[in-house]
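U., I forgot to send this yesterday:
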Amino acid sequence: MKQRGPGGDRPLSRRQGKGEGAARPEPAPAKPKIDKASANDQVLDSIIAADKREALRLAPVSHETEARLDRYIALLREWQAKTNLVAPSTLPNLWTRHIADSLQLIDLAPAARRWADLGSGGGFPGVVLACAMAGTPGATVHLVERIAKKAAFLREAIRVTASPGVVHLAEIGDNVDRITGPVDCITARALAPLHQLIGFAEPLMRQGAKALFPKGQDVEAELTEAAKYWNIEPELHRSRTGDGWIVELNAAERRS
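Result:
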């Protein structure tokens, strides 16, 4: 039986020519382009946000300090693309590995207002300390850095966070000549073996400064080596953020 089209007896043909209402197949929708860089950034943002919550649990700060630290981290991530400020492997753990690790020093020297951070690099702990102490009367953090690009970053970080920091582009051993006025506490992170750090810090310690040096699990070996060169009475504090330690020194005398 022939099938008839609507409105007439003419049979429906299997083929219809152009102009006879032939249905054209719709083009397949274009597949959205996936920006892998953006996707990676979003994943990293999520990881960093979770890490931030853990870091602020370990080292709580005010809302004002948190806002300054947020600006600092945003700037660091922007500069990290062109200047190696931190090890890339530590980016997902910026807050616990670097921010909280720096903030814990304040509890070990709560009365300190004037700090010196030797070899500041990407700003740990110096910029973090400055962010935390913004608004504290008499607070100053001296950041000593010998690499010009990193010193430029430190200046920008101090500017955008409106924190009380002074950046010195200088060799680490020149810190005494660069820093004017008294210093309450000296610190240095991932800069040099302990016996060398003591050598850098000793002139300021002689003027009454305390030293706080974050160290890793091999702290005992570093203390043994340091004792060959210095008479010291260290106090060890376990780090809140890992398996490391913080070496506290109130005096150091070179062995003859």
